[in-house]
């Protein structure tokens, strides 16, 4: 049971990191947007979803360098589908949600990387630890909205996610894949 909890925690960490990438000319529609994190426990993928996050994004494909993205994810909202796992993930060994209730991403640059592809550089902060990350993002038009999709692999150990007995990466892998689908109305 602890092994499964660890996988869920790891996935949550990744999801927090993933939130760093999207941006648009309007407020993000969180009802249509998702941020997930997938980790591997004993080489079996485990995915969880963050249910509460906010974003302030500005993006124009013709002027990507003028864009920006800021995300805040409530780490206590991470959902692995089982309340006992969710409680463990909120604890000190994982997210320590009481001490560090939010993971954040603040962009510092957006650069073109091909047709409808961009690289968003910024600072990802989880559990009080910050790392500069580069997130590949694809942008698609969906009527009056834009969708921003991407994924990013992070190392949970760089953010002190999984301490104590969970620090060992032989049971729960160090790599966490954060995937996101962010929808924002165009102005």
Tell me what the structure shows.
By secondary structure, the chain is mainly β. The protein has two helices and ten strands, in the order αβββββαβββββ. The chain has helices spanning 2-18, 83-90, and strands at 34-41, 44-50, 53-58, 68-74, 78-79, 102-112, 117-126, 129-142, 145-155, 175-185. Strand 7 and strand 8 form a beta hairpin. The longest helix is centred in the N-terminal third of the chain and has 17 residues, at 2-18.
Summarize the structure.
Residues 1-26 form the signal peptide. Helix content is 13%, strand content 47%. The chain is mainly beta.
Using brief descriptors, characterize the structure shown.
single chain; 187 residues; mainly beta; Lipocalin; 10-stranded antiparallel β-sheet; 2 helices; globular
Gross morphology is globular
- Ranges where pLDDT stays below 50 over 5 or more residues in a row are 1-25
Give me the strand/helix succession.
Answer: HEEEEEHEEEEE
CATH architecture: Beta Barrel
Query: Count of helical segments?
Result: 2
Which helices and strands appear, and what pairs or packs with what?
Blueprint: H1 2-18, E1 34-41, E2 44-50, E3 53-58, E4 68-74, E5 78-79, H2 83-90, E6 102-112, E7 117-126, E8 129-142, E9 145-155, E10 175-185
Antiparallel strand pairs: 1-2, 1-10, 2-5, 3-4, 4-6, 6-7, 7-8, 8-9, 9-10
Helix pairs in contact: 1-2
């Amino acid at each position: 049971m602890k092994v499964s909890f660890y996988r869920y925690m790891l996935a949550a960490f990744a999801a927090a990191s993933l939130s760093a990438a999207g941006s648009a000319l309007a407020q993000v529609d969180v009802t249509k947007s998702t941020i997930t994190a997938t980790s591997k426990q004993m080489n079996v993928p485990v995915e969880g979803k963050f249910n509460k996050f906010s974003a302030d994004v500005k993006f124009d494909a013709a002027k990507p360098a003028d864009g920006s993205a800021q995300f805040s994810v409530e780490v206590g909202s991470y959902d692995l589908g089982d309340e006992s796992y969710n409680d463990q993930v909120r604890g000190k060994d994982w997210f320590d949600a009481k001490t560090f209730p939010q993971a954040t991403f603040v962009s510092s640059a957006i650069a073109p990387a091909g047709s409808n592809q961009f690289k968003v550089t910024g600072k990802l902060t989880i559990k009080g630890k910050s790392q500069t990350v580069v997130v590949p993002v694809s942008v698609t038009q969906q009527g009056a909205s834009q969708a921003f999709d991407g994924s990013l692999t992070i190392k949970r150990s760089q953010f002190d996610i999984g301490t104590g007995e969970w620090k060992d990466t032989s049971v729960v892998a160090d790599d966490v894949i954060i995937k996101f689908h962010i929808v924002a109305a165009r102005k």
